[in-house]
Structures are given as structure tokens and as C-alpha cells.
Amino acid sequence: MNRQELSFIKLSFFLSTIICAVKFVAYFLTHSLVILADALETIINVVASAFAWYSIYLSAKPKDREHPYGHGKVEFFSIGFEGAMILIAGFVIIYEAVKVFIQPAEVHQLGAGVWLAAGTGVANFLLGYFLKVKGKKHNSLTLRGNGEHIMSDAYTSLGVIVSVGLIILTGYNWIDPLASVIAALIIIYTGFKLMRKSVGGLMDETDMEVVNELVTILKDNRHSNWIDLHNLRVQQYGNFYHVDCHVTMPYYFSLEQVHDEITQLDRLLNKGFEKGSIEFFIHTDPCIPESCKHCIMNDCVVRKYSFVKKIDWTKENMLPNKKHAFAD
User: Fold this and answer.
1) What secondary structure does DSSP assign to 270-299, as a single string?
2) 246 in helix, strand or coil?
3) Distance between CA atoms of 96 and 177, rounded to whole angstroms?
4) What is the DSSP letter of 62?
5) Which pLDDT value is given to residue 60?
6) Measured between alpha carbons, how far is 299 from 8 in angstroms, rounded to an integer?
7) Does 105 or 84 have the greater pLDDT score?
């Protein structure tokens, strides 16, 4: 899988380099600030693709003594670096726009600029969409982040086409710096989103989409011996997920029986989970008399209380560290 990811990010790097060169040709022909803004963002594409290339290579390395959970966290550094570079580019563009507002500059050969912007915009959109699709398929944050950035570059190119077209039609050169400010704000917003995703991942923020998928698998394949499941936690390391939880089982089960049940849980999640591989750490709790009221085992020989109500497994009662959460 990582070999494929590397080939995709290499493609992104080389195509982004070509697109960047074409955009700078357009800038030198036109001296348009909004085209310069578009070209500067593409420089970030090239630099970010190079960093993403390294991060995918590093995340593919196996676990070792110093990195017992692998190297997958580097992907969050990758998208954070990309987000930071985008933010810098956005503020640089705004700075240049203010300068042009103060001291207007002439623009030239805008017709050629429009065609070059259109061609690079289409190329960026197709490349970005391709990377997002592949990133989602391989659950690669790096590919998805790179794809989102490149697609935002395509939208910027659309704004360039509209802006330059308006300048050609009206002759108002002030449209150029104004359009570049709008493009910069879009770029800054994209950078902020990537930075937010990076910080969330590095801080082990819970991904509710992943939690929902795990809860669905467990709920649909629940065994009667699994009396309760709580304190569910998920950490992501690239395509690798570390999942731990507490499972309540009958107190009279032997160590061998408990091990068999845990093995079934592990296999169940790894078979049904499509986003990556799972390392499952399970802490087992013995059932208590209060468990009888919610235990769905029909053949329990030590039941002390009659069955009252089955507690459905949901993320609301599986995430808290509380046995039989929301029980009456």
C-alpha cells in the first residue's frame, strides 16, 4: 500500500513542478498580482509534495524499540507543515496586494494569462481529485491533505480566470490586487483547516467517524458473553490504529476462555474495519451482581438478579470509563 502511496505522491510532485513553472511563465508575461498569488500557492504544492513524499516513506517503516507504535504520526506533521506553508503564502499575497493598492502596477498580455491559468487550473483539479480519491481509498492523511490543497489551488485558478477576464473587459486594474486578496483569504482558510487537522491528530483527538464504524461492527456482532464494553479509545498512526477498551465478562470464566473471547473480538474488528489495521488492547473486568440486570446470557448458572433491560452499545455509553453506562 505504501508503495502505491509513494508513486501517487511522486506523481503529485512532478506534475506540481510543471504546473508551477507554467504559472510563473504566465506571471512574467502579465505581471498580474493575482496570477502571482496563484503561482506562489503552487510553489507550496511542490514543497509540500516533497515533504509528503518523505513522510509516506517514513510512515512505511516498521515498528522499532524507539517507536513501538510505528512512524505513522509523521503524517500529521506533514499536513501541519503543508498548512503552515499555505498560511505563509496567503499572508505574503495580502502583503503584495497592499503594496499594489498603494502603488498600482501595469499588467500586460492578459489574454495569454487567462489561457495558461485555465490550463493549469484544470490540471490541478484533476490531480487534486485523484489524490483525494486515492487518499480516501488507502486511508492516507498525507495524500488527502495534499489533494485538498491542490484542489483549492484549482479553485484559486478559477478566480484568476474570472478576475483577469474582468480586467480585460473593464480595463480596471484595481481588480487585480482585490482579487488576489480574495484568493489569499481562501488560501489562508485552507491552511487553517489543515493545521487544525494536524493538531487534532497529534493531540490524539477522537475521530468520531472511526469510532462510529467500530461501534457498528461491535454492536452488529455482539456476543452474549461480552456483557459490557466501555472506555473505548482510538489512536491513529498512519494506516495503523491502536484501540483499547474494557470488556466485562463472566467472573467465573477461566483465563483460557477470556483469551479466546478477546481473540474473537480482535479478529472481528480487524476483519470488518476497512480504514486500516488494528492493534487491540483489551482490559477485562469481571461481572458484578449489578451486571445481571443487563446481562443477555441465557445460560448463566450464577445469576443473582433477574434480567431488566439490554443496554444497546452506542458511542455515548462505550466511550466513557463507566461500566454499564446509562443503566437505570
Assistant:
1) HHH--SSEEEEEEEEEE--GGGGGG---SS
2) strand
3) 8
4) P
5) 67
6) 54
7) 84
CB within 8 A of 108, min separation 6: which ones?
29, 30, 31
**pLDDT at residue 68 in the model:** 67
CB 268 within 8 A of CB 196: no
Full 3-state SS string of 217-243: HHHHCCCCCCCEEEEEEEEEECCEEEE
Assign 3-class secondary structure to 78-92: HHHHHHHHHHHHHHH
Which residue type occupies 265? L
CA dist 24 → 47, 146, 190, 275 (Å)? 16, 21, 22, 39
Tens of pLDDT, residue by residue over 205-258, are: 678 888 899 999 999 999 999 999 999 998 887 667 888 999 999 999 999 999
- Indicate left, alpha or beta for 62 from its phi (over 0: left) and psi (-120 to 50: alpha): beta
pLDDT at 231: 93
Q: What span, in angstroms and rounded, lies between the C-alpha atoms of 230 and 219? A: 13
In the chain the domains, ranked by start, together with CATH numbers, are 2-202 (1.20.1510.10), 208-318 (3.30.70.1350)
Residue 203 has pLDDT above 60, yes or no: yes
List residues bridging with 281 in a β-sheet: 244
In the block, which residue shows the cell 502583503?
95
Helix (H) or strand (E) holding 261: helix 255-272
Angstrom CA distances, 323 to 242, 243, 298, 310, stand at 21, 18, 20, 14
- Alpha-carbon distance of 241 to 238, in angstroms, equals 8
- Grid coordinates in use for 31? 505581471
Query: What are 249-282's pLDDT values in tens digits?
Result: 999 999 999 999 999 998 988 888 877 778 888 8
- What's the confidence (pLDDT) of residue 146? 75
314, 215 contact by CB (below 8 A): yes
CB 184 within 8 A of CB 215: no
What are the residues whose beta carbons fall under 8 Å from the beta carbon of 318, sequence distance 6 or more? 215, 218, 229, 230, 232, 245, 325
